[in-house]
Write a sequence for this structure.
């Protein structure tokens, strides 16, 4: 009996190694050793799985934060792209404006180059002329004092002629620029007047303002009409801005004879109409009388044939001719120095 008891105690001590812990705080007796190790393996697997799950949770949080950062960065890049597109459109518009400006400047540069080339040709011509004369002078073995003086005078005369040509060209350009400015100003001032009643043109370097008689006068009369007062006033305002220019007023008629108690013939009528215009410009619009000249041309410078009513109506007109001052005009016509043989 004692052996059996000992044997039984030994068995209880051996099985106590495999007792399991109950969640309620008590030990439970497993059925056998194999079941104990199986439950321990399950717990171990659960623990390992839990440990492996922790990095995944932290990795998921980190990925979400990175996703938000990348989204914000993408929105910033999108806004930068939109701003770049707007700047590109603005730069394209600036490019078009610059292209137009460059085209205009290139045209101006071509004109200046053409003028420079023309002046260079003229200068080269005179240089060659002088060089040829000097070469001939060097070839002569003996040149008398009077012969050398004659050559020197010829060279000076050529230089004077060159200067005269340049001055004349400059004067013509200045006159043309003045005429263009005068015509543009007159047309703007008279824009509301019927083109059939008034015309402005440049002929032979002089500005002509031609006004029909039906706008200025009654038939066979030299008295200025009320409608003409407004027209002459607009012309006078422009002429007062160009006070350095002289004014010639010419009366013209058709070839139909006239004879009244006040008018002897068409000469008389054309002159009186011209003086009426001059008097109105002086007394009512303040143009200096020393700038003006009145003249009648009668029927002898027609613009159209007098064989039709339309032609005769065209010929009945008064022309206001804008001239440079007479002393400047005559200076312009003076010839340059002659080259002595």
């Amino acid at each position: 009996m004692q052996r059996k008891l000992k044997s039984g105690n030994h068995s209880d001590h051996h099985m106590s190694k495999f007792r399991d812990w109950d969640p309620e705080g008590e030990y439970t007796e497993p059925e056998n050793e194999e079941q104990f190790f199986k439950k321990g393996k399950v717990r171990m697997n659960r623990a390992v799985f839990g440990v492996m799950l922790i990095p995944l949770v932290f990795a998921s949080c980190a990925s979400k934060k990175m996703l938000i950062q990348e989204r914000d960065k993408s929105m910033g890049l999108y806004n930068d792209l939109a701003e770049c597109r707007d700047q590109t459109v603005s730069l394209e518009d600036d490019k078009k404006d610059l292209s137009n400006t460059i085209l205009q400047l290139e045209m101006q540069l071509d004109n200046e180059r053409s003028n420079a080339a023309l002046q260079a040709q003229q200068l080269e011509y005179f240089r060659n002329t002088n060089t040829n004369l000097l070469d001939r002078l060097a070839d002569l073995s003996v040149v008398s004092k009077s012969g050398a003086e004659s050559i020197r005078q010829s060279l000076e005369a050529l230089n004077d002629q060159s200067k005269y040509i340049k001055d004349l060209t400059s004067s013509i350009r200045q006159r043309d620029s003045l005429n263009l400015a005068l015509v543009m100003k007159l047309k703007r001032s008279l824009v509301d007047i019927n083109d059939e009643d008034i015309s402005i043109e440049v002929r032979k370097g002089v500005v002509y303002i031609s006004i029909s008689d039906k706008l200025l006068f009654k038939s066979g009369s030299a008295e200025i009409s009320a409608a003409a007062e407004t027209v002459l006033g607009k012309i006078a305002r422009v002429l007062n801005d160009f006070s350095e220019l002289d004014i010639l007023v010419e009366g013209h008629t058709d070839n139909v004879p006239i004879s009244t108690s006040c008018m002897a013939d068409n000469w008389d009528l054309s002159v009186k109409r011209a003086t009426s215009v001059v008097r109105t410009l002086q007394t009512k619009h303040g143009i200096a009388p020393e700038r003006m000249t009145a003249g009648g041309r009668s029927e002898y410078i027609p613009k159209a044939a007098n064989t039709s009513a339309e032609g005769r109506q065209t010929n009945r007109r008064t022309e206001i001719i804008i001239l440079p001052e007479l002393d400047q005009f005559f200076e312009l016509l003076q010839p340059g120095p002659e080259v002595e043989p």
